Amino acid sequence: MDVTAEPLASSDAALLAVAAFAGEGDQAPPVLAGAAAQLGEALGVDLTAELSAVGFRAGPGELARVPTRGAVAAATVVVVGLGPVERAGTDQLRRAAAAVAGAAERIESLATDLPGAVTDADAGDAVAAVVEGLLLGSYRFSAYRSAPAAHQLESVTLQVADVEAARTAVHEAEAVAGATRFARDLVNTPPQDKRPPALADRVAEAFAGTDVRVRILDEQALVEGGYGGILGVGRGSSEPPRLVELTYEPDGAERSVALVGKGITFDTGGISLKPSESMETMKMDMAGAATVAAVVRAAAELRLPVKVTGLLALAENMPSGTATRVSDVLTMKGGTTVEVINTDAEGRLVLGDALVHASELQPDAIVDVATLTGAAVVALGERIGVLMASDDTLAERLLDASAHSGEPFWRLPLANEQYGERLEGAIADLRNSGSRSAGTIFAGLFLHRFVGEGIPWAHLDIAGVAWTDEASGYHTKGATGVPVRTLLRWLRAG
């Protein structure tokens, strides 16, 4: 992706893109943004009149095409709506860029001044938002298509005021968007090609030649280490579980964090078998692990001054004659015993082991990421994730990062005083499932029991936001990559 200070009219790109704000009132003409008016002059047309004539009102993501009639190299100008000017910000730019990416899907080259359309936004943030929108909006998972993918956009030029500053923002945004696309690829991969050993190996290959150390604990190492939760969940599968440890440790690191990801490569529910319609998307039950791998990858690429340890707890939850039964008792890493009330509440079991492992590293903070509870989807739907935390400062910083990234999360209380007694098992220290009410809080309280004392901890339940059944904005159908950008923003903010 290139940057230039030259006007759009001088570009040799096959497609030009500019923006407009919605006017005040339903029938008001659009208000041209950035270099749109200047481009209209170069074309010799009244761009506002042209847009009004076709009923373009510049709603968020709305598109209009204007022929150039040979006045410039491009055959067409695309105008994208940003909505009302008072609501415009970086996420509107991100969504507008994704809409432009869709319009340019079969075009070789594109030039746009979108980064300068919202003058109130920080220039670097605006450039980053446009780059992210273009790269995420153009994402397609086509690895399993029999026919090659249609020709995709190859060259993009951003028209900006400060070229050098924009180059830095482009580099950082490409790393962030690339990590998000990597996470999407892992989640979208069919389950037969990412069973625990295969997924562990694929992740290791992705870090070959980087500054990240990779350690894979196989089933023997898990037995020797006492990882009873991971082993118990994986017991029903013909493919054994794995725990992958990724370590990025730059010289002079200012702080250390541990990221823990749930990696159930396919979730049938085990003996507590899911209904068939609930299994259709269960290849995405490793989205937490994919997120963690992607974040560590980008942290290394961006050379962030933070030690980041990523733990991917990988298992396949299958029913069989060797599977964990309801009422079995598992001994977790660290010695806590857990009575299994529901084998479909397996994510918290693999995470519990990984959280103990993370705590032994004594990081400054631990964040776990998991498609953990259906209750999170009931509570907040498919557009907002759940955040729970033991530390207010950590929670606030993560919420700030999520707001900046356009990946909303809502904080729920741990509420140990109200619900903590539900964790107590009848014949073991804990039970892995409680009543239907407050299911997300119960799961968070369960996880907190495995975090070392005094270590700030946060839990991101992404059950509703890791996957989408319909394309929207810069989220294409399938894996979303949420919350890769949130966690990277948090790490970069310090």
UniProtKB/TrEMBL annotation:
GO cellular component, one term: cytoplasm
BP GO terms, sorted: proteolysis
Family matches, as Pfam families: Peptidase_M17 (PF00883), Peptidase_M17_N (PF02789)
Key words, A-Z: Aminopeptidase, Cytoplasm, Hydrolase, Manganese, Metal-binding, Protease
Superkingdom of origin organism: Bacteria
EC number: 3.4.11.1, 3.4.11.10
Binding site for Mn(2+) 2: 262, 267, 285, 346
Keyword Acetylation: no
Cytosol aminopeptidase domain segment(s): 342-349
Binding note for cofactor: Binds 2 manganese ions per subunit.
One Gene Ontology term of the molecular function aspect: manganese ion binding
InterPro entries with a match to the protein in the record: Leucine_aapep/pepB, Macro_dom-like, Peptidase_M17_C, Peptidase_M17_leu_NH2_pept, Peptidase_M17_N
Catalytic activity: Release of an N-terminal amino acid, Xaa-|-Yaa-, in which Xaa is preferably Leu, but may be other amino acids including Pro although not Arg or Lys, and Yaa may be Pro. Amino acid amides and methyl esters are also readily hydrolyzed, but rates on arylamides are exceedingly low; Release of an N-terminal amino acid, preferentially leucine, but not glutamic or aspartic acids
Residues forming the catalytic site: 274, 348
Amino acids binding Mn(2+) 1: 267, 344, 346
Protein localization: Cytoplasm
Cofactor(s) listed: Mn(2+)
EC supergroup of this enzyme: hydrolase
Family statement: Belongs to the peptidase M17 family.
HAMAP family with a match to the protein in the record: Cytosol_peptidase_M17
Function: Presumably involved in the processing and regular turnover of intracellular proteins. Catalyzes the removal of unsubstituted N-terminal amino acids from various peptides.
Name under which the protein is recorded: Probable cytosol aminopeptidase
Originating organism: Egicoccus halophilus
